[in-house]
Design a protein that fits this description.
The chain is α/β, with parallel strands linked by helices and about 350 residues long. It has two domains: about 5-150 and about 290-335, Rossmann fold, CATH 3.40.50; about 155-285, Rossmann fold (3-Layer(aba) Sandwich), CATH 3.40.50.460. The protein has helices spanning about 15-30, 45-50, 95-105, 115-125, 150-170, 185-195, 210-220, 245-255, 260-275, 295-310, 330-335, 345-355, and strands spanning about 5-10, 35-40, 55, 110-115, 130-135, 175-180, 200, 230-235, 275-280, 315-320, 325-330. A seven-stranded mixed sheet has the order 3-2-1-4-5-10-11, sandwiched between helices. Helix 5 (about 150-170) crosses helix 6 (about 185-195) and helix 7 crosses helix 9 (about 260-275). The chain is elongated, with a radius of gyration of 22 Å. The structure holds 6-O-phosphono-beta-D-fructofuranose. 6-O-phosphono-beta-D-fructofuranose (F6P) binds near residues 114, 137 and 138. 6-O-phosphono-beta-D-fructofuranose binds near residues 12, 138, 139, 181 and 287.
Length: about 350
């Protein structure tokens, strides 16, 4: 039986996309035989599926990409909430995607992406396409999997960034705040904050009280430590903002001329404690470059499992790692949900047990 599978990468890029694509391809060629599998690369995520931007790949296309950052297929953000909306261009995106699937004679579609991608994957699965998702994101916020590929590499890079701030903070007796990506979840900041020895970790799941943050800084200062390192999640907010809706929060920040919570925290600490404060934003550096050894292994395991799902014709699912097991979840059970840090998470407790403040 000959199979023809389409692969696309959607949403923000991250390390490990190519390693996962390679894992899927190699496992499929190995399992089904090179003559029995055709792989179609779809350019720029769902945009490519909407516009039939497809290319037949050969086994050699997947060689030498294990360590390569980004994605060989390109990617694009294609917001889920607009998928079923017909805009000025008059394009029925769902209809087009189904047509491309048909025109390309696909037996299944593999979608590598984060939360938004998974919502569209579920939509396409509900529309009758054979879809298998693969969980990608540096945010690690996909429901139903302990880990996503890209996350561990980003933790390593963020840790390195925090490590490198220590010397300047110590030499200048300053507060250095490192703003870390992660969207609405604090996984990346929590992990790299602990690994990088941050003194204060601020995450969206634990709204901070600025007085408590300043107390923690002053407490260190009183014990002879003239500097502090603060890991700040890009999505964090204070206890007052926690009571507000997203729009109100954004409006209040705009009114006060505040771009990010990190800049505001730095200004408040400097004003309240008199200690010079600086902000560092590694930003997209966290998503760039080669995947770590952990992510290469995970990507390969995920790819192999996806090939197994294809062989079993188990569709409407997304690959996951739960405990030490590589498995899969039904798209219908995970799409639209976000995995947040539980305030009782063992890592939060671990950090608190060594005296790290969360500003709560
Ligand atoms: O989801 C990955 C992520 O890097 C988030 O951590 C971040 O909030 C967002 O993407 C940034 O998106 P963009 O690259 O579109 O600016």
């Amino acid at each position: 039986m000959k199979r023809r599978i389409g692969i696309l990468t959607s949403g923000g890029d991250c390390p490990g996309l190519n390693a996962t694509i390679r894992g899927v391809a190699k496992a499929c060629y190995e399992r089904f035989g090179e003559d029995n599998i055709e792989i179609v690369g779809i350019s720029n995520g769902y945009y490519g599926l909407i516009n039939n931007l497809c290319k037949d790949m050969s086994p050699s296309s997947f060689s030498g990409i294990l360590t390569q950052g980004g994605t060989i297929f390109g990617t694009k953000r294609q917001p889920f909430k607009m998928m079923q909306v017909i805009g000025d261009d008059n394009v029925d995106k769902v209809k087009n995607m189904k047509e491309t699937y048909k025109k390309q004679k696909l037996d299944c579609l593999l979608t590598l992406g984060g939360n938004g991608t998974h919502k569209t994957s579920k939509l396409l699965s509900d529309e009758g396409l054979n879809v298998i998702g693969l969980p990608k994101t540096i945010d690690n916020d996909i429901y139903g999997t302990d880990v996503t590929f890209g996350f561990h590499t980003a933790v390593d890079i963020a840790t390195e960034a925090i490590d490198r701030l220590h010397t300047t903070a110590a030499s200048h007796s300053r507060i250095l705040l490192c703003e870390i990506m992660g969207n609405k979840a604090g996984w990346l900041t929590l992990n790299s904050g602990i690994a990088g020895g941050a003194d204060i970790i601020l995450i969206p799941e634990i709204p901070y009280d600025i007085d408590k943050v300043c107390d923690a800084v002053m407490h260190r200062s009183a014990s002879g430590k003239a500097f502090s390192i603060i890991a700040v999640a890009e999505g964090c907010f204070d206890v007052n903002e926690a009571k507000m809706k997203k729009k109100e929060r954004a409006a209040k920040r705009a009114e006060a001329g505040i771009t990010t919570a990190t800049n505001r925290i730095a200004a408040q600490i400097q004003a309240n404690t008199g200690i010079e404060s600086r902000v560092c934003v590694p930003g997209h550096m966290l998503r760039g470059g080669a995947p770590s050894a952990y992510d290469r292994v995970l990507a390969t395991q995920f790819g192999v499992h996806a090939a197994w799902l294809i062989a079993q014709e188990k569709y409407g699912r997304t690959v996951a790692k739960i405990g030490n097991k590589i498995t899969s979840n039904k798209l219908s059970e995970i799409a639209g949900k976000t995995k947040f840090v539980d305030t009782e998470n063992h890592l939060v407790i671990t950090a608190k047990d060594i005296g790290v403040s969360f500003g709560d």
